[in-house]
Amino acid sequence: MGFYTIQRMRESAPTPSATPLPEDFPARAKLLAAGLHTLEDVRANLETLRNLGLTRKEAEAVRAALGD
Asked: Please, are residues 7 and 29 in contact by the beta-carbon 8 Å criterion?
């Protein structure tokens, strides 16, 4: 395979889709302000929610909303 063939394959590969935070998601404004814009971002940072400025109750609500 040539360089240009591989480059075209990369460009046409589907990119993984991310799920934006729902409008009614707990502590949504704080999560967005912390740079967490998707459910996947939030899941990846579950251990640091309190460090991002969420209260204990807000962190628990976020975990419950994710089902974790």
From this structure: no
Residue whose pair of structure tokens reads 């404004």 in the numeric block = 29
DSSP 51: G
Per-residue pLDDT tens digits for 2-48:
776 766 666 654 456 889 999 999 999 999 999 999 999 999 999 99
Query: In 3-state terms, what secondary structure has residue 37?
Result: coil
Q: Is the pTM of this model over 0.85?
A: no
Q: How much is the CA Rg of the chain, to the nearest whole Å?
A: 17
Residue 47 to residue 44: CA distance in whole angstroms: 8
Place of tokens 């589907």: 14
Per the CB < 8 A criterion, the answer to whether 33 and 49 are in contact is: no
